[in-house]
Design brief:
The chain has about 425 residues and is mostly beta strands. It is about 0% helix and about 55% strand. The protein contains no helices and 36 strands. The strands form 7 sheets. Strands 1, 2, 3, 7, 10, 11, 13, 16 and 17 form a 9-stranded antiparallel β-sheet that branches. A hairpin with a 6-residue loop joins strand 8 and strand 9 (about 115-125).
């Protein structure tokens, strides 16, 4: 017996089962209930973008597909909208509505966030109290299975109130008539179309070999995370406010400029459904998931962009912070004239240095030899100094610049054949 059908095609890989894709599918205007929408798990996705999963109570076995939800404030659920219907209709009397009763079950969480815990609500809704609108028929080209799928909505026989910031799970099942076929099903969507809210859907179906709660992604051919198509209506619970993220910069400063590496800490808060995740981007290098403080290094100006998304899918407007790092100079340079130009380079820091690149450059128009010279000092201990020289032939005034590591010194002088005079 087929446990699932109309598997979505492989359209990419996403290892996350907890993040929601921000671009949500639009809900269907024709399926609205006369109450406030308090949870939207995405509807209107089918076919190659999702499929269906068995959700049935029948003599041969019972399937418990379930999906999770969480409200930012206390909410009372009065009505449920779901998308599903019947498959293997060719083994019964064809593609049409079989007018079964449906059962709604709510579960607590197992405490780990990845599957249901205990059953806390179980109510059967008679067929006569269920509104439905035909959605689509389908015939599988490989096995000839036929499907009839609709939009369903119904008031709960007894409304149920859920606590704020607490995860729950929902199951919707079709209760079969005495015959074996067709089977009831629930529509699903993969994470590339509609996204995953909280954790992906789970299923428990011992008759089909799934004796413990199992991720639906392990059952479908694309192996992408999948969620179930449903909405909850009632009062309270609505979260339309995005989270707020702040950035804290830590490091040694001087005159508003950092003179050390900078540690960036991002703190996100959400007063309703809770923060799902935070992203950051350093100097346009690409977006990353934030988990712990990170370090920004290097002389120059740096920009960190960041935003957060809450568990209701609200996306914060991207923020940014810009700062400058200029490490302190640990070398001093003294320029001298005479026979050519010399530079006295001294280690004024607190650590021994190695492999120090240096250069001397003259910009005079009549410098014929020694316009530039460079080299490397292999080692320079704390308090030590070394003199490097540039042999010069030229005439006239010239600017002089010497560099050593991050240090720079400039002066002016006058070249007179082999000599450079008046360096200051």
């Amino acid at each position: 017996m087929a446990l699932m059908i109309v598997s979505s095609g492989a359209v990419g890989t996403d290892t996350s089962t907890t993040e929601r894709v921000v671009q949500n599918q639009a809900t269907l205007g024709s399926a609205r209930l006369d109450r406030a929408l308090v949870w939207d798990n995405v509807v209107g996705v089918s076919g190659s973008l999702g499929g269906i999963i068995v959700a049935t109570v029948r003599t041969e076995g019972t399937a418990f597909p379930a999906d999770d939800f969480r409200f930012g404030s206390e909410a009372t659920v009065e009505s449920v909208f779901w998308e599903g219907g019947y498959f293997q209709c060719q083994l019964a009397t064809g593609q049409h509505d079989y007018n079964w009763d449906w059962r709604v079950i709510f579960w607590s969480d197992d405490g780990m966030g990845d599957h249901p815990g205990s059953e806390i609500y179980n109510q059967t809704i008679p067929d006569a109290l269920i509104a439905r609108t035909f959605w689509y028929n389908y015939t599988h080209p490989d096995n000839g299975n036929t499907y009839w799928v609709a939009h369903y909505s119904a008031d709960l026989p007894t409304p149920i109130t859920f606590d704020a910031n607490t995860k729950y799970w929902i199951t919707v099942q079709g209760i079969q008539t005495p015959n074996s076929y067709p089977q009831a099903c629930w529509a699903r969507h993969n994470n590339t179309h509609g996204g995953i809210l909280l954790h992906e859907a789970e299923i428990l179906a011992a008759y089909w070999g799934y004796t413990t709660w199992t991720n639906i992604s392990t059952l479908v051919t694309d192996h992408l995370p999948h969620d179930l198509n449903f909405q909850l209506y009632g009062t309270g619970g609505v979260d339309i406010t995005p989270p707020v993220t702040t950035a804290t910069l830590e490091g040694e400063q001087s005159g508003g400029v950092f003179i050390s590496d900078v540690t960036v800490t991002l703190t996100a808060t959400d007063d309703s459904s809770g923060v799902a995740y935070t992203k950051f981007n350093v100097d346009g290098g690409g977006w990353n998931n934030y988990s712990t403080p990170f370090i920004v290094q290097g002389n120059g100006e740096h920009t960190v962009e960041y935003y957060s998304v809450d568990n209701a899918g609200n996306v914060e407007t991207t923020k940014s912070t810009t700062f400058t790092i200029q490490y302190p100079t640990v070398l001093s340079i003294t320029l001298k004239g005479g026979l050519g130009v010399s530079a006295v380079i001294k280690n004024t820091g607190t650590e021994d240095l190695t492999n120090i690149a240096w250069s001397i450059t003259l910009d005079g128009k009549l410098i014929f030899v020694g316009k530039t010279k460079s080299g490397t000092i292999s080692a320079l201990g704390v308090g030590e100094e070394v003199t490097v020289k540039d042999f010069v032939i030229g005439f006239g005034k010239t600017g002089i610049e010497a560099t050593a590591g991050e240090a720079t010194a400039t002066a002016e002088g006058t070249a007179l054949l082999f000599f450079v005079l008046g360096v200051k």
